[in-house]
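Q: What does the assembly look like in three dimensions?
Context provided by user:
Components: three
Sequences:
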Amino acid sequence: MPELPEVETIKNELKPYADGHTVKKIDILWPPTLRGSTEKELNEKVAGHRITELTRRGKYLIFHFDNGKILLVHHKLTGSFHAEANLKEPPKNTRAIIHLDDCMDLYFVDPRRFGRFELADPDTETLKKLGPEPLSRQFTEKRLAEILAKRKSPIKPVLLNQELIAGIGNLYADEILFASRIHPERPANSLTPAEVKKLYTEIRRALRNGIKRKGASIATYYRPGGEKGSAHLAFRVARKAGEPCPQGCKGKISYKFFRGRGTYFCPSCQH
DNA sequence: CCCGGAACCTGAAGGC
DNA sequence: TGCCTTCAGGTTCCGG
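A: Here is the predicted structure of the complete assembly.
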């Protein structure tokens, strides 16, 4: 599911294996996983090079190399990393393997095959077009107000638009709107100042809480050591259609297919 | 420019 | 039990 909290967790937990270590080779087992270059071209740039740092931007995991190149990884729906040493067989659905200098291997496992690797430069357009990091100092209440004021589209697709705010996905968007008591179809520019303030607080709260709980393992998300996260245990509406509203308003959680995404909300307390 | 829908894929879950 | 349908966290492209 990798949204911001899951990618942040993956980054934090892969760091000990990656930072300062050298890549021996990257194997691409499912060629479409690698965008923009061939496996051979990729290895000409990364094999034998040191990973100076592992970072995250929005939902991208970023390997930085000592020659200035970066490797962007997007997990899409079902991608995850498994860090293992000396496995005889790659885990099922492995699409790529990053072999490191100390015999540790990072297996990129992705059943639905949507995940992507891309070799790039740090000034790549892919990163430049992303909106602000919602947990950074640059993302202020004022900044959020400006983003919303310019948009008459419904609030939910605005939260999901990576060019406006980077990192929020479908599940956290529903949780954030529920906590803010804002209906997902409300035009973004119709929010009152008090609602914008509440939304700002709940965006940061939801993402921080997701990181603290090491991500949400609703379906296929696993941490690099194989453990699950626990953020989904604190979810109040996502994937809970028919259950009573946890706010105690006597309403029931509704499911609606809205703008191409499953959307969960309480019609009686989100306005 | 905005929007809806399809495409990219597999596999789990639910209905019958 | 087994077959068929539906649905899934993300992004991108195409057409109206």
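Follow-up: Chain A has a mean pLDDT of 94.
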